[in-house]
Amino acid sequence: MTIMQMVYWLIASVGNLLALYLFNTTGNGLSILLLFLSLSYSCIGFYDLKYSPHTLNRLYPVVAYIRYFLESYRIEIQQYFVANDTEERPFNREQRSLVYQRAKNVRDTIAFGTQRDLMEDNYLSLWHSLSPKHIADDVKRITFGGPDCTQPYNASYLNISAMSFGSLSTNAIEAMNLGAKQAGCYHNTGEGGASPYHLKHGGDIVWQIGSGLFGCRDESGNFNPDTFETMAKRSQIKMIEIKLSQGAKPGHGGVLPKAKITREIAAIRHIPMDRDCISPAVNPECTTPIALLRFVVRLRTLSGGKPVGFKLCIGNPAEFLGVCKAMLETGITPDFITVDGAEGGTGAAPVEFSNRLGMVCLEGVYFVHNALVGVGLRDKIRIIASGKTASSFDILTKIALGADTVNAARTMMLALGCIQSRHCNTNMCPTGIATQDPARSKAINVEQKSQRIKNFHHNTLESFYELVGSMGLDDPAKLMPQMVKRRSPYGLLMSVGSLIEPLAPNALIDDSADRLVDEVWSAWWSTSRSDQFYADDLYVLTPAEFKHQA
C-alpha cells in the first residue's frame, strides 16, 4: 500500500468521523466546508481505487489529478518560466518577440549584444561590405510566368504561405487576406480551397489544389474542370499551385480533425462531418511526373493562362530529377516550384513524419536550383521557398541558396497574435486563430490584425533589403550560396553549399568533357524516370568533407 493509499483510508475513516463530529457539535461554516471536502475526497478516492483505468489514480488516489493538471499546462510553464530566449522550438522567444514587435510597429532592436554563440557548430552568418548599397524599388518584385503563361504575376519577396480555412478560423483568414492586400503580397489558400473568406477583401490569391482536390471536385471526389475554371478565372486568383507533398508531413495527406469540421467547411470541401478529413497521400491527377506536367497544362489552359506550379518537399533527389526528365521529354514546364522544408509547420501531423522525413528547406532549395540549372530550365521556372521564416536573415538565406521568393505561414499567425500554444489540432486555440469555435474566433478583430500582417511584412522586408545592401549588393537577385557562411565543427567558416557540387548550366544533359558531373548527381540522374516518381535510393552518401580531402 502506497503512502497516499494509506492517507486516503485515514481520511475516509477518521477524517470523515472527525468532520461529522465537528459539524454536529458546532454547525458553523468551517465544519460544513470540512465535511464537504472530506466526503468529496472519499468519493473521488473510492472511484480511483476501485474503478479508475489509470494506474496512477489507483496508487495515488485524488492527488494524481494534480499531476494531470500541471501536465496540461506544461507547454505554458516551460514557455513562460523555464526556457531561455534562444532554446525553444519551433520558434524561440527571440524569434517570436521579433515578429510581435514588427507586427505592432514598435522597437525591434536588442541591447548589450547577441545572446547567440557565434562559434556554435553550423551557425550561419554573413560577411558585410564596407560599401553598403541601397536597394531600388524596381528590383523589389519578382515576375512569375514562364513562356506558356499569358497572365504573368508580379509578386513580393515575402508572401503568406498555405493555411486552409478549416485549419484557421474565418476571422483569421479574413485578417490575413486583408493584410495581404494592404501589404502588396499574395495569400496562399492552402489545400482547403478558396473560401469566401479568402475572397472577401480582394487580396491576391494563390489557389492551392491539394490531393483532396477541395474546391474543384465533384461528389465522388474526382477533379471537376467546370468548377475549377469558374473559380480560377476570377481576377483575384493570381496563380495556381498543385500540392504534391508538405514539409511537415511528406508522404502523408492533409489532416483536418473532425472537431474542426463545420457544416460550412464540409460544404466547401464536399466532405462528411462525422470523421477526420484525411487527404490522400498521392494527388490522383499527378501519379507520374508526366501526368503532373499534363495537369499543369490543363490547369493553365482552364485558368486562362495564369501561372501554374507545384509544391513539394524534397525526399529522394532522383525522384525530382525524374520530373526534370519529364519536362525535357514533354517540353512542358511549370511556371514555379514551391519547395517546402521538413521544418515546416502544420495543424496536425504524425510525430514521426514531422520529425524524420524530408530535406530541410535550405537543402531542398539548393538542390532544386542546381537540378534546374543542370537541365537548362532554371531561367523558365521560379522557385518559392517555404518553411520556417521569422526574420529577414531567414529570407536572405533562402534567396541566396536559389529561391526567388519566400512564403511564411506560422510567423504570419504570430503576427495575428498566435502564442505558440501548440493546440492547433484540438480546436482549442486560445487566440482564436487555429479553431472553428465561433466564440474564440470572433475575438480576432479583422481590421486591427490585418494591419499587423502589413506591418510585419513591411518591416521584415525593409530589414531584408537593408541586410542585402549591407553586403554591398544593390539587388537581392545577386545573392549567391557562397555568400552565406557556416561555422564548421573545426571552428572555421565555410560557404554554405561549398561541399555540395553545384552544376554548370546543362551539365546533366551535356556529355562534353568540360561539363563533368559529380558522381552523386550521375547516380541520381541514372536512376530517375519520367514515367514514375519512385526511384531506388541505392547511392551510398559519403560525408562530403571526406571526399574532398581525398
From TrEMBL:
Transmembrane segments: 7-24
Keyword Transmembrane helix found: yes
Name of the protein in question: FMN-binding glutamate synthase family protein
Alphabetized Pfam families for the sequence: Glu_synthase
Superkingdom as given in the UniProt entry: Bacteria
PANTHER family attached to this UniProt entry: ARCHAEAL-TYPE GLUTAMATE SYNTHASE [NADPH]
Family listed: Belongs to the glutamate synthase family.
Record keyword Membrane present: yes
